[in-house]
Amino acid sequence: VLLPVGQRMLARLMSGFAAQDRAAALRLDEYRQALRIIQDYPILGVGFGGAPEVGTFVGVSSIYLLVGEYTGLVGLGLFLLALLTIGISGLRTALTAPDPEQRALAATLLAPFVGAVLVGNLDHYFMNPQFPHMVALFWLYLGLLAASGRSRGLTAQLF
After folding, report:
1. Angle at CA of residue 151, ends 141 and 117, nearest 5°
2. What is the rounded average pLDDT for all residues in the chain?
3. What is the pLDDT at residue 6?
4. Cβ contacts of 42 within 8 Å, gap of 6 or more
5. Centroid of chain to Cα 129
6. Is the pLDDT of residue 84 over 90?
7. Nearest residue to 108 via CA among 134, 156, 150, 144
8. In 3D, which of 69, 64, 20 has the Cα closest to residue 47?
9. pLDDT value at position 87?
10. How far apart are CA 1 and CA 144, in angstroms?
11. Whole-structure pTM value
12. DSSP secondary-structure letter at 41?
């Protein structure tokens, strides 16, 4: 922080938080545009209904607003419900599973889940069709986390 490089970095960070630099202003404009699209197409978004107006730009740096733009409030609600259900299930497994290995597995899978859910507020890579490998990785972790609570019970039932 005391070196000139640190001073420039701190100044850039402060201008970003104050929305004074171009990148922050662009991001805030994306958020306003996304909220307007969700307001104009609230039920099914622009992905399932009629074509949006000419000049409507669909795309924002937030997975939640991106899902809301494409699928409307119905799809966003279902997405949030799925995240909440998987998160609670994973947390319950990480805290209460009888097997220590199962608790460790659930806690290990819970960490990237929480990271992705938090980063999703300001980033779009986990839901953007231009990055299918990141979307697949996101859902792979969610699937593994969802299955982590059932792995021992299922194994015990089969054998």
Report:
1. 25
2. 81
3. 80
4. 72, 73
5. 13
6. yes
7. 144
8. 69
9. 93
10. 41
11. 0.76
12. S
- Residue 52 carries which side chain, given as an amino acid letter? P
State phi, psi for 130 to the nearest 5 degrees: -75, -10
Q: Whose structure tokens read 């290995």?
A: 101
**C-alpha to C-alpha distance for 146 and 127, rounded to whole angstroms:** 19
Integer Cα distance of 72 and 75 in angstroms: 6
User: Quick check: 51 pLDDT over 70?
Assistant: no
Contacts for 142 with CB less than 8 Å, ≥ 6 apart: 82, 83, 86, 113
Token pair of 136 as six digits: 């697949």
Report the distance separating Cα 35 and Cα 27, nearest Å: 12
Report residue 22 as tokens.
């171009």
The amino acid sitting at 69 is E
- What type of residue sits at position 12? R
Dihedral, 35, 36, 37, 40 alpha carbons, nearest 10: 120
- Total residues belonging to the chain: 159
Please state the three-class secondary structure of 7-53 as a single string. HHHHHHHHHHHCCCCHHHHHHHHHHHHHHHHHHHCCCCHHHHCCCCC
Closest CA to 152 of 116, 109, 105: 105
